Amino acid sequence: MPFAGYIFDVEGTLIDCVPQTILSLQKSLADLGLKIPYETLQLYVGLDGDQTLQLLAPGLDSSTRKKVLADRASHYRAAYLGDIRAFRQVRDVFAALKRGGAMIALATDCRGPELRQYRALLKVDDLVDAVACGDDVEHGKPDPRLVGLALRKLGIPGSKVVMIGDTPYDAEAAQGASTAAAGVLTGGFAKEGLLQAGCIAVAQEVPDLISCLEAHLPRSSETAA
Q1: Cβ burial, residue 39 (10 Å; 0-12/13-18/19+)
Q2: Which member of 31, 153, 187, 191 has the greatest number of CB atoms within 10 A?
Q3: Across the chain, how many H-helices and E-strands are there?
């Protein structure tokens, strides 16, 4: 294995839920009279929710932003959560990584009912060594603290770990936590954008990524102790 540790984002990376999260935010904003195109909201997928609202609707105060995010979560749970599905072969990928001696962590901004549902869908708890979630840190990505917490829980130097996500904000958080970053295209971002954000490799989905990482990893990193 090219790395000793793998930190995975969840929403959009392991769980197919990006359109539903966008639609839920779009509705909560529309309820305030703010009509923002889907394509605009797509640009902020994976960014900390409060930070997203400050950029999209700078006139909203803190309490209103909290209400919008709470309404988004309520709508998502009611309208979509029960029908969400995991991406293909996630357990197979995790099992292969574990057989190769790697450790695995999840680093996700989500929490509560969403995280419980995602873990039930993924069925990988027995293969996961650490979880850092929205209950553990105040700020979401690209703030590096969530990835940093996952890294500390794994107990592996950042130079031997890669963070795998579906957005540029995952890559930024990884770099801020001194880990490598790799990307998948399931979050709706272009390959070029993920590479520009710092990903060393980008694949269509997680099952395609490990061989992609091996192909793109510099030789000195592959053989690092």
Answers
A1: exposed
A2: 187
A3: 11, 8
CA trace torsion 156, 212, 87, 162 (10° rounding): 20
Contacts of 123 (CB under 8 A, 6+ apart): 91
| pLDDT digits 0-9 by tens, 199-219 | 999 999 999 988 888 765 544
CA distance 204 to 87: 11
The torsion of the CA quartet 46, 196, 178, 162, rounded to 10 degrees, works out to 70
**By CB neighbour count within 10 A (0-12 exposed, 13-18 middle, 19+ buried), where does 99 fall?**
exposed
Whichever domain contains 30, its CATH number is: 1.10.150
* Alpha carbons 148 and 144: distance in angstroms, whole number: 6
Structure tokens at 21: 């999260």
Helix (H) or strand (E) holding 132: strand 130-132
Q: For the domain that residue 165 is a member of, what is the CATH number?
A: 3.40.50.1000
- Whole-model pTM: value is 0.92
47 and 9 inside one domain? no
pLDDT digits (tens, 9 = 90+) for 126-152: 999 999 998 888 888 999 999 999 999
